[in-house]
Amino acid sequence: MPHPHTSPPHHAPTDRSEAHQDASGEHLTILYRGPLASCDYDCPYCPFAKRRDTPEQLRADRAALERFVTWVSQQTHPVSVLFTPWGEGLVRSWYRRALVALSHMPHVERAAIQTNLSHRLGWTADADLSRLALWSTYHPGQVPYERFLERCGELLQRGVRFSVGIVGMPEHLDVARRLRAALPAHVYLWVNAAEGRSYTDDEAAAWTELDPLFSYSRHPHRSRGLPCRTGHSVISVDGDGTVRRCHFVPAVLGNLYDGTFRAALRPRPCPLDICDCHIGYVHLQPLGLYDVFAGGVLERIPLFRDLR
Q1: b vs e for 64-79, b when ≥16 Cβ sit within 10 Å of the residue's Cβ?
Q2: Per-residue confidence (pLDDT) for residue 141, from 0 to 100
Q3: Could you tell me the domains of the chain?
Q4: What are the DSSP calls for the chain, one per residue?
Q5: pLDDT tens, residue by residue, 231-274
Q6: Distances from the Cα of 202 to the Cαs of 61, 209, 262, in angstroms?
Q7: Each residue of 85-113: pLDDT tens digit?
Q8: What secondary structure, in 3-state letters, does 66-123 show?
């Protein structure tokens, strides 16, 4: 296992990035969230529901995911996929297989997943690393620091694109500083503002030293009436194929599998007062974050990696 400071060749953003395709209306970015809700971690600050999936629920999640991957394989336009499971997907073999399969589809520009990196990473050897990416989160108290850092080192050795993040709790600051110092400069360390927490300017400054983009997470964004890519070039899909513009707007646009969603795709403003989650506000056009994250919107990797 190499030391995490080693810096093997890192896949640069391709010209087929999200930022260059959305204007044409041909590229479709999909945030997929199936029924999976079980997780091997139990973080006290996590707003997601916690439960153990039954064998029947796991089988249903597997079938839904396989149906989705089949649908993607049948498309002729460019597609990017981010899996945003309530639980941890990579401990389930079908998510690993799905990412590998998607990464080898020539019309798929990015296949990414949000993960805690708790599972072994050998499966990445079967993927096309020009398309695979991991949005990884370190959860202090759930995994030893050294083990998480080893996983990051293995990703570097394997040449996998990834970002690393942490929730901005006061008790996480020291270990976040330790993690930032241990990771190569080109690995972006993002910080999410803790749910329902406000930050003094001094507190925010400490987190901004680690993540120069922390200001985007610190305050909810007033979004009502602002143009947003969701519902046009970005959609949210659940396990039965129900399509919404994003995870946070409940209105249904149609269904993926009968094609009814396509007639509803168009530029539209946000209907909500605020947007306070990165997977939502990154698509708000006035924020300009497609330029900041060009080539890495789904995996949360900025174009300019050394932001310090």
Answers
A1: bbeebbeebeeeeebb
A2: 79
A3: 18-292 (3.20.20)
A4: ---TT-----PPPPTT-HHHHGGGT--EEEEEE-S----S---TT--S---PPPHHHHHHHHHHHHHHHHHHHT--S-EEEEE--SS-STTSHHHHHHHHHHHT-TTEEEEEEEE---S--GGGGGS-TTTEEEEEE--TTTS-HHHHHHHHHHHHHHT-EEEEEEE--GGGHHHHHHHHHHS-TTS-EEEEPPTT----HHHHHHHHHH-TTHHHHHSPEE-BT-EESBTTTEEEEETT-EEEEETTEEEEEEETTTSTTGGG---EEB-SSEE-SHHHHTTBGGGTHHHHTTT-TTTT--SS----
A5: 999 999 999 999 999 999 999 999 999 999 999 999 999 999 99
A6: 44, 11, 47
A7: 988 899 999 999 999 999 999 999 999 99
A8: HHHHHHHHCCCCCEEEEECCCCCCCCCHHHHHHHHHHHCCCCEEEEEEEECCCCCCHH
For residues 66 and 16, the model is more confident at 66
Amino acid (1-letter code) at residue 69: V
Please name which of 238, 247, 233 lies closest in space to residue 32, comparing C-alpha atoms. 238
pTM of the model: 0.88
pLDDT digits (tens, 9 = 90+) for 124-171: 999 999 999 999 999 897 788 999 999 999 999 999 999 999 999 999
Tokens 């394997």 found at = 158
